């Protein structure tokens, strides 16, 4: 107790307040900026120090570890600097000696009221002087030619920044923009301050992001027509729009440049000259060339008939494409892909005969006679063979038995008899159930025709051969599956032979038509909805035995682990493609060969001969002619052979021309795969069905194909289940109904097509029935070619438990005759609640069967029997040409049609 007047402590109303956590000092971005240039310590550093006993040793170990990190940082810095120098070396001009290649700049208009030509014209005038008055008469003439669309790419020389640009003013055309973005170092997106980006611009951005793009720069037009107080907000909004689509988008002004302000035009030119170029991985490993001009001449050596013409009797010749070599060194031994034209062989590489655009107009060319820079080596030159010839005698065959030989001789003898015996020469003999009328026989399809019946499972039967590939008994074309039971007596199982020639083609017996035959076929939306609600489930047909309907299917204990020979009973198409035993090793060998023959090693010597009509009046550089490659950054003329004259006649002058050197074996056909995800903008359209014709773009190539879809993953046996539809993978309730999880994970598309060694972006368009406008339906990434990937189509037969006695159950409605029960007895049964069992015996004459399961059966459960069959894509991949119609597929009954695709 304290005395009076003494100090007494009293509790204060203030409480302790801890400091708040300041996340801005510990965020990932701040830590990354703080540790920029530093090397992370190895994980074994602490254990190494703790094992040292003395303090001196600990200090020595710490100092050595710090020195190691410093050296590693220096090596990393030196490596980055060397890569940047190597990247810019192709652009660095050596004045008074020779000049480097120009930077390719694509100008893309995104809004309807903007003009890409105006952007090029403004930059041109700003670099040449203040307006047209400061330019020469020749520059004004060239500018007028460009404005009229006479010239192609514009090569602009900027000595102030020691740079050169090749400007591509693009129209509002999807194909033209995509082709230009494939080869462009910089992509200038032209936006409007008045109008927003329309639907075409949004779809174009989605396609550009999927295929890959270099450095992005933004430009705004019509900013002067808006009030000055809105300029900052407009530019900030457009900057956020581009940054939302391209996270790597940056610029010196951090906002799109305005062409109405001269200082912004100067900043735009400075940005193009100094900003680092973002590399696109799949194009960096190959040589490509943007054509400044093309010239088609008749091939005098071949007498006017080239070696690479696709159309029989079509006039072919030599095509001379002039431009700068970019990427890697250009090798004359490699084939070249011409945009919208296909693959062609290189006849020679020579110096261009025209006047270089970067030289002053008063300067005369050094030589008007072209000089041969490189010729292909006949022993190392790639051929134009894309597929192997099919040898029918090389297939697996079974030697006939004595009974079959005797039966064949008896049939031949009967056919030679003139005793009035009925001949079936006019039609094929089919096996039909006893009592079948002629009208009913017309609706029964045999296995060789690959008909599937009248099931509504997915209407795969509308195309005849969709997925009906016999993997159990030989090649598809042989139809061996239907002969599996020919040794049995036809009369013993209730079957009789009927001639297809005696079956009427018209409906002459309407009384035999069942109600199922008169029902309208389901639409594609109904098929997709049924596949989502009951995937792969199918009602057993009553009109035909199940052992015949599913003769080409097999049962598997586990679809992911059960053995399946990938080379078993393959169709003829597999004999035409090329297979790779080890994809990674083959890719490394092809890359090493391309680098060795392309100048990374010593070039192969070529004996230069003056061919008739080729060597006359043409100089040969002795120093460069011993090599079959030309250094990158060189302006050359590539002469292609076998190019059809129609390619030049149908080409649009506003579309860019580019040439790509293919890597070894990229002309060969194999079983190609790509992981695709349904595009969000196409969610409201019809579902994309397996084997629908699509326009595919894989890297530089663009072709038409009908891919087959399967699950992204596969088991240890290489089996992937077939996907009948490509679903949309959205987030909302409506999107879940359209695809849900199956749409998010995407599908693996498979088709027969050319090999692509690099991992590239894949775009898929579809031209729907009733319209000629292609829609972007899917985007994805290419996968290694693999002929051993097994795509298995699954059908699930379901039955109902009729009587249950613990583990023994009588199942009905799965089959409808005892012969089918005996035929499928070896196949394992399963239930939707996780039970597994086997068929013991048939009960009665209506298809009921007694089954034994591994546990008591629930009365609410459903018995299922999964059956599998391997499917294959169709052969028919063609180079897509905008001037030729493409295939489109409609609903059942409409068939396939060919329409012209309108992209613009």
Question: What's the quick description here?
Answer:
InterPro entries: AARP2CN (IPR012948), Bms1/Tsr1 (IPR039761), BMS1_TSR1_C (IPR007034), G_Bms1/Tsr1_dom (IPR030387). The protein is α+β, with helices and mostly antiparallel strands and 904 residues long.
List the SSEs and their pairings.
Layout lengths: L27 H7 L10 H6 L4 H35 L13 E7 L6 H13 L8 H11 L6 E5 L4 E7 L4 H10 L2 E7 L6 H13 L3 E7 L9 H15 L11 E2 L3 H13 L6 H4 L2 E4 L2 E6 L17 E12 L2 E2 L4 E3 L3 E9 L20 E4 L27 H15 L12 E5 L4 H4 L53 E5 L15 H4 L5 H10 L3 E2 L7 H4 L33 H18 L18 E2 L1 H4 L3 E2 L4 E10 H6 L7 E4 L7 E10 L9 E2 L4 E5 L2 E5 L2 E3 L8 E5 L1 E2 L6 H6 L2 H4 L2 E8 L6 E7 L6 E10 L6 E16 L2 E5 L5 H6 L5 E3 L4 E8 L4 E6 L9 E9 L6 E2 L6 E4 L6 E4 L5
Parallel strand pairs: 1-3, 1-4, 4-5, 5-6, 13-17, 16-31, 26-31
Antiparallel strand pairs: 2-3, 7-9, 7-20, 8-9, 9-19, 10-18, 11-12, 11-20, 12-13, 12-19, 14-15, 21-28, 21-30, 22-27, 23-24, 23-29, 24-37, 25-26, 25-28, 29-30, 31-32, 31-36, 32-35, 33-34, 33-36, 34-35, 38-39
Helix pairs in contact: 4-9, 6-7
